[in-house]
Design goal:
The protein is of the alpha+beta class and 1195 residues long.
């Protein structure tokens, strides 16, 4: 009888497979859920930084996907095993039966898992095909990819917020006084000194500011603000000027420049100049050499806003180029330009920390409209640009009473002096050759950029806040860090899980509809015997095949179909054989060979030492690679990322380590399964085996890694060890998948740097330094570059020049310009040059009147008294003298400068107060500070950014007062004398306001944030209180002066290089210590077990592996175990069993499993490999021996 209701394993039942399908879809749904949530929120467990991510989320991200994958693969291992071991019985239970190779000789559970689907497909064993394919997908796709689904990254968050305050332009009548030289000073600092733009401004436009409130952005997280606002900008409209020589025949150096709209400007050029660049506005002033306004260019709505830009170069004095009167021809580029101003409603984003607009975020929400003269005083603005100073002269603080001096910045350009005010702003920050400006487009562009740049600065000067806002809503965007789901890998895993769910349902349908005549679980040797006990035909078929190998068995059994029949009347089963051929295994020759007992014991490849050697090599290689990576991680502070692609990194960091673990696991499972099969036979060939550890052992009915408890109960220690290692393979998968993680770190590289100059002053440059400074000034009374730098630094926080700290100018080295990125820093040792101001305070006191001070005699080296000289100069100061209660500040040397003077080494500063300024000999109260500077130098370890700006410095040698050459002190004293001359102000006078009149006191006012030291109504400042600021400012300005004038140093020795280290921020790969140690421990245990198992004496006894029904039948067919009468015999429970040689019931000799005492156990030592690697290698080249010598008797 054939039936579909016979015994089938629970794992192949409908409830279990439906549950497994539901679990599969649940995993897929969970992945999709977290993927959708990650997409909606940008990530999971979002935190201000990765270090602040919750520990539970970090652990879940590292381990949960792999743990789920391991549990899922274990469930599938059980289902897959039952599908494979049931396939022979399904085939036998079919009404037509099955051939031997498709039934009793199937051994799917013992095939390597990757090959099973192909074998099953060829034989059309679809349950095995679907379960085996699912197992391959689980092992080598889903399990590794699970670990690659999740990664860490930064994500953008957006929240709505309220606009609390907005800014708008002040009324037109207030704008004229606000459009002053402070704008040009700021523009100078931005263009030449890299000062950041004011809030809400860029080089191209300005935004009316807005400020968000209650943004709910986490503390310490940088954010971007977005809101509707007004964008203000300016553009130039330029066209070529008509250039006409003033004299006929082109014999003049003067030319007419016509704008085509009625204006005509006459400009003359210096025929000896290299290049000339002019910016000529409409309105003139005493500070301008040229202007357009006049009879030849009357005021119109357009002309008053136009300017003329000229680039000119005289030709060479050659015969063909010189005019009749000896003047050269000129190459001239001239354009007229007219600025126009615009406003536009936009949606804009700014960085909350710097309030800097994000250019790419600007989106128009309204049309571009003109910014009218009723909204912006363009006339005052253009007057300021054309003349460098305001139309209405008012008293201001000292830095803002004159035109910004830019000539020192233009010295290397070859442009003739004096250059127009706007030329400096047009060329600021550019690295173009001066000849490039002869192109009209380039000329228009640089002046257009300069106009936009200064317009943005001017707008910032004109703002006033308004709390009543018409559009109160904005938004804030910020970055958080967390776990991110890879959409690619999530989709792949979900698709694979969907495929497995379909395979599970197909397996369920096939299993449910498969024939099964099994009465019980075929889980042990005894149950195999019980199934075939009533099948004498089959037993006779295999009776003579006890020593045959697997191939021979299959070949001799290939004819006929085998069937498993169930007899309902006797409630028993039997195996029948249809269309069988005579059994060649019973041929006389075969019988003779069997009696003599010669055979080659089978050696499964998984048990061979070659396999063990390769496994150990792979495990050692894995530990070596992990250890090397860890050593490199420690050495390099992280491993370099091989790619920046998220998916590629996930493959390398998670997939490949996991795939290695999932390749190792099947090997251990196969070895474990093989030992599960052989363990009962080992008990049998050792002799007198109890039934519970031999023929009743059920190791093959469950996944081998779950046999652990049964092996412990049976005290099969080798099997216990192998089960443990197979289970730990899952731990290895989890460990390796989480070993590699990314984190930002600082990478270090070594660089060789060349010095920019030698640490020694050049004698000629030092003596001529003051004349060098004087010849480079046009609009001011003294050299001001270092003051502009200090002003930008103190007032706006602009970074000091490269290689300058608040105390020292450091010996500069040329930094490489390649392989750099923002945020890189360099660390090196270099020399610092500084000064101790060495100031002495003289407390305030009442000054004497009618002092007579002897004049300084430079020839004799006799210097006048510093304080008395200062008192006389301050009392007798008539310049712009005020009335009533007044104050005066003083800073000067003894002489007026010129050549270096020893008496000018000290610098005197004073502060005085009087109640009646008009009385020259009236009562005056005040104090002094006298500074006698000396040089300081030492070696330092410094840290600089890629531009050379000092980030940190530490002194590494003793401080010295001279450099290592004889003239050092002479040179530094001369430098101090010349620097002191630059401190002198020609604007110091008695005043009854609180405005500054020199650089030192303006800086002090900025440092203190108070004008008390300038206030005539208060007491004079105490010199001891002024002392720290004076010393700081003196030292600061001196080192800035050195940094701006490197020409005073000797040229460098290019062989005198130094070694620096470049530190760059990189995201690198780090190894999770816990996962690493777990992985290495498991790999190490694997190696120990593999060595212990493979490199001890291994017995090979069986002629074939007992992995199929046919193979087992050949071992038991002739024995008394297969007799149907055995069940009726008493005392069966206490019987023991052995594997060996015995005489069967038919009187013939066999080898197989038999009852004791009818069997002579084999001696496994006859076939053991000798231990030791050398012996094993030798055995590879020896011809294998037969199990016993031909003349040996065994019974």
């Amino acid at each position: 009888m054939h039936s579909k209701d016979g015994w089938k394993p629970l794992s192949l039942s409908v409830p279990v497979l439906v549950t497994l399908t539901a679990f599969t879809l649940l995993i897929a749904a969970s992945i999709e859920t977290i993927a959708q949530r990650s997409k909606a929120q940008g990530g999971l467990a979002l935190s201000p930084s990765l270090d602040e991510m919750p520990r539970y989320a970090w652990l879940a991200y590292l381990y949960v996907p792999n743990i789920v994958a391991v549990i899922y693969s274990t469930l599938w291992s059980w289902v897959d095993l039952d599908a494979k071991r049931m396939q022979p019985w399904f085939e036998l239970s079919k009404p037509q039966g099955a051939t031997a190779k498709d039934s009793i000789f199937l051994d799917y559970p013992y095939d390597f898992v990757a090959f099973v689907p192909f074998r099953a497909a060829r034989r059309k064993h679809w349950p095995v095909f679907f379960s085996g394919t699912a197992m391959v997908i689980v092992f080598w796709l889903i399990t590794p990819l699970q670990s690659a689904i999740l990664g860490t990254d930064s994500v953008v968050q957006k929240v709505d917020a309220q606009v609390g305050v907005r800014s708008e332009l002040q009324a037109l009548q207030q704008q004229e006084t606000l459009l002053n030289t402070e704008i040009l000073n700021t523009g100078y600092a931005i263009g030449w000194l890299d000062q950041p733009y004011p809030p809400f401004t860029t080089s191209s436009y300005a935004l009316l500011p807005f400020y968000l409130e209650d943004t709910s952005v986490p503390a310490m997280v940088q954010s971007n603000w977005t809101a509707n606002t007004t964008k203000l900008s300016t553009e130039l409209s330029c066209w070529p000027a008509d250039v006409v020589p003033k004299s006929p025949k082109n014999t003049s150096t003067s030319f007419y420049f016509l704008n085509g709209q009625g204006c005509n400007a006459t400009i003359g050029f210096n025929q000896w100049a290299n290049y000339t660049m002019l910016y000529i506005g409409y309105y003139g002033s005493p500070y301008s050499d040229f202007w357009l306004g006049g009879p030849k260019c009357v005021e119109t709505a357009n002309s008053t806003h136009q300017f003329l830009a000229i680039w000119a170069k005289p030709g060479p004095f050659s015969a063909e180029n010189v005019t009749d009167i000896g003047t050269p021809q000129f190459n001239i580029t001239a354009i007229y330009c007219q600025p126009r101003y615009y406003k536009q409603q936009v949606l804009a984003t700014v960085e909350s920390s710097t309030l800097k607009p994000v250019n790419s975020s600007i989106r128009p929400v309204g049309p571009i409209e003109p910014l009218t003269e009723q909204e912006f005083n363009s006339t005052a603005f253009e007057f300021l640009l054309g003349n460098g100073i305001t139309d209405v002269i008012t008293k201001r603080d000292y830095p803002f009473i004159s035109v910004v001096e830019q000539q020192p910045r233009l010295n290397d350009t070859g442009i003739d002096r004096p250059a127009s005010n706007m030329v400096g702003y047009a060329l600021a920050g550019r690295d173009l050759p001066v000849t490039a400006y002869s192109d009209p487009k380039t000329l228009a562009k640089v002046y257009g950029d300069a106009h936009r740049h200064l317009f943005s600065v001017a707008i910032n000067q004109l703002l006033i806040n308004n709390t009543e806002t018409s559009e109160p809503t904005g938004s804030a965007e910020f970055y958080l860090y967390g776990v991110v789901v890879s959409r690619v890998f999530a989709t792949i895993v979900e698709s694979l899980l969907g495929v497995i769910a379909c395979f599970t349902l197909l397996l369920m349908w096939l299993s449910r509809n498969s024939w099964s005549n099994l009465p019980h679980n075929p889980s042990s040797l005894r149950r195999y015997i019980d199934i075939t006990r009533d099948s004498p035909e089959i037993l006779r078929q295999f009776r003579g095949s006890d020593t045959a190998d697997e191939k021979t068995l299959i070949k001799e059994s290939e004819k006929g179909n085998y069937k498993l029949l169930y007899d309902t009347s006797s409630n028993s089963v039997r195996v029948t054989l249809d269309n069988a051929q005579p059994n060649t295994l019973e041929s006389p020759q075969r019988k003779q060979d069997s009696q003599r007992g010669f055979y080659d014991p089978v050696q499964p490849w998984i048990l061979k030492r070659r396999t063990g050697t390769l496994l150990v090599i792979a495990l050692i290689a894995a530990i070596t690679i992990l250890s090397y990576f860890k050593q490199q991680e420690s050495k390099l502070n992280g491993l370099k990322r091989p790619s920046n692609n998220f998916e590629v990194l996930q493959l390398l960091e998670n997939y490949i380590p996991t795939i290695f673990a999932t390749l190792i696991e099947p090997l251990w499972i196969l070895l474990n399964r093989t030992i599960c099969v052989l363990q009962p036979f080992k008990e049998l060939w050792e002799g007198k085996a109890r039934s519970d550890v031999s023929i009743d052992a059920t190791y093959t009915s469950i996944p081998p890694q779950l046999v652990l408890w049964r092996a412990i109960k049976s005290r099969h220690l080798t099997l216990v060890t192998l089960c443990t290692v197979a289970l730990l393979a899952n731990v290895l998968s989890v460990g390796l998948s989480s070993v590699f993680n990314e984190a930002p770190t600082v990478a270090v590289y070594t660089e060789t740097l060349q010095p920019a100059f030698a640490p020694q002053f050049d004698n000629s440059s030092v003596y001529n330094f003051e004349s060098y400074m004087v010849q480079n000034i046009i609009t001011t009374a003294g050299y001001r570059d270092h003051y502009y730098v200090a002003l930008a630094n103190i007032s706006s926080g602009t970074t000091l020049p490269p290689w300058v700290s608040k105390d020292f100018f450091f010996h500069r080295y040329d930094l490489p310009q390649i392989d750099q990125k923002k945020g890189d820093i360099y660390k090196l040792q270099t020399r610092g040059f500084g000064v101790s101001a060495n100031c002495t305070p003289i407390p305030s006191y009442k000054w004497p009147a009618n002092l007579t001070v002897p004049e300084t005699d430079e020839k004799s080296g006799k210097c006048a008294d510093l304080v008395d000289t200062a008192i006389v100069n301050m009392r007798e100061n008539h310049f712009d003298r005020s009335t009533g209660v007044s104050a005066i500040e003083y800073i000067a040397t003894l002489t007026s400068g010129g050549a270096p003077q020893p008496c000018d080494l000290p610098l005197t500063l004073g502060w005085g107060r009087t109640t009646i300024a008009t009385q020259m000999n009236g009562s005056i109260f005040g104090g002094f500070v006298v500074c006698r500077p000396y040089f300081q130098t030492a070696m330092f370890n410094v840290t600089v950014d890629i531009s050379g700006h000092i980030l940190e410095y530490n002194q590494t040698s003793d401080m010295k007062s001279a450099l290592d050459y004889p003239e050092s002190k002479t040179h530094t004293d001369i430098l101090f004398e010349q620097a002191n001359h630059q401190w002198r102000s020609f604007n110091n006078h008695w005043h009854n306001n609180t405005l500054s009149n020199d650089w030192m006191n303006h800086f002090i006012m900025l440092l203190t944030g108070s004008r008390a030291s300038l206030d005539p109504s208060g007491p004079p400042p105490e010199p001891k209180d002024m002392l720290p600021m004076v010393e700081y400012l003196y030292g600061q300005l001196f080192v800035i002066l050195l940094s701006l004038n490197e020409h005073i140093f000797v040229k460098p020795d290019t062989s005198n290089v130094t070694t620096a280290t470049r530190h760059t921020q990189e995201v690198r790969i780090f190894m999770e210590n816990a996962s690493l140690y777990i992985s290495i421990a498991v790999l190490g245990l694997n190696i120990i077990v593999a060595l212990g198992f493979y490199f001890r004496s291994v017995a090979f006894v069986l002629p074939r592996m007992p992995t199929t029904l046919g193979s087992i039948l050949a071992y038991i067919a002739p024995s008394r175990l297969a007799s149907s009468k055995l069940k009726q015999l008493p005392g069966q429970d206490s019987r023991t069993f052995s594997f060996g040689r015995y005489v069967g019931l038919d009187g013939r000799s066999y080898i197989g499993v038999e009852l004791d005492p009818y069997v002579v156990p084999v001696d496994p030592s006859m076939r053991k490999y000798k231990s030791g690697l050398v012996a094993w290698i030798g055995s590879l080249f020896r011809k294998r021996e037969k199990y016993m010598a031909k003349n040996e008797t065994w019974l």
